[in-house]
Design goal:
The chain has about 300 residues and is mostly helical. The protein has one domain. Helix 6 runs antiparallel to helix 7 and helix 12 packs antiparallel against helix 13. About 55% of the residues are buried. The radius of gyration is 18 Å and the shape is globular.
Length: about 300
């Protein structure tokens, strides 16, 4: 995730009977930060391959979170099982970021984000069977099919990368739930991101290092890491402890629309009517899914 979002842990204190305005504001800051970072990444693609920008993003997040949480201390004495879990979490997280950047190199930001949502909606539908979740999955598939049909003519590879990012996002949610249940929190996240840096280095480090001499593009890539990883992950820890699942799921539906607006404002990516329809269907699907039974993380 590109995304850090998953649903709140059921044991966390939450806001019931509505969502406090300041939490909605924090969520919007989170969303805007993520896609402002993605917009910086798109600008960096002109001078650095998408894989390189993705690696710098993960590296930046790992450095910032590592300096903050110092996982080498916090995880001392952990057994092999949680450490292997964190390793898997880090590999999936980094691969998700990599495929997402390869997608937005080829597709408009809002379109790629909407297609990517097939992952978490699929997880919710599998975890909580029922007519409402089935309807959400059907609506999401129609929305993604609409967007894919438009995008395939321009970049079939971009669609494949966006779908791959969505499937990795689904796996991320499952692993994030396990990390949260074991109480590993942001300390575990910091360790996982360090693993992710190493995991995708064979594919992505060389393009980043080749562009290291270009100060402006490195600043864009580091900015993408700060805005899309470090800040959103920190804000998530505030939101996930205070929002109910229903409120968080409802706010999550704002992300495809936010990405579309950021793409329009910052990248001049004007969506076509069918693209707006497809993104709208994905938003409806996110609202439809039953949040009480959604996976947690």
């Amino acid at each position: 995730m590109n995304h850090s979002h998953s649903d709140p842990d059921p044991g966390s204190p939450t806001v019931r009977g509505g969502t406090a305005p300041h939490l909605v504001a924090l969520f919007l800051v989170n969303a805007v930060s993520q896609y402002a970072g993605a917009s910086l990444a798109v600008r960096a693609f002109a001078a650095m391959p998408a894989a390189g920008v993705a690696w710098v993003r993960v590296l930046t997040g790992a450095v910032v979170l590592g300096a903050w949480r110092r996982p080498w201390r916090g995880l001392r004495g952990q057994t092999a099982v949680p450490l292997l879990l964190l390793a898997a979490f880090g590999i999936v997280l980094a691969a998700m970021n990599l495929t997402f950047y390869l997608a937005i190199q080829r597709l408009p930001l809002g379109t790629a984000v909407a297609i990517e949502f097939i992952g978490p909606i699929l997880v919710a539908a599998i975890a909580a069977r029922g007519p409402r979740n089935l309807a959400a999955l059907v609506v999401a598939v129609v929305g993604v099919a609409t967007l894919s049909r438009i995008s395939v003519s321009g970049s079939p590879v971009g669609v494949i990368y966006a779908i791959a990012a969505g499937l990795l996002w689904a796996l991320y949610i499952i692993l994030a739930h396990q990390v949260a249940r074991r109480g590993l929190g942001t300390t575990g996240l910091a360790a996982a991101m360090a693993v992710g840096v190493v995991a995708i280095a064979p594919l992505a480090a060389a393009p980043a290092l080749e562009s290291a001499g270009h100060g402006a593009v490195m600043l864009l890539a580091v900015g993408a890491g700060l805005l899309s990883s470090a800040l959103p992950y920190a804000l998530d820890q505030v939101l996930l402890r205070r929002l109910s699942r229903g409120s968080f799921a409802l706010l999550l539906s704002l992300l495809p629309a936010t990405a579309t607006v950021m793409g329009l404002v910052l990248l001049r990516q004007v969506p076509q009517p069918l693209e707006i329809l497809g993104i709208g269907l994905v938003v409806v699907a996110v609202v439809l899914r039953t949040p009480e039974a959604a996976p947690t993380g």
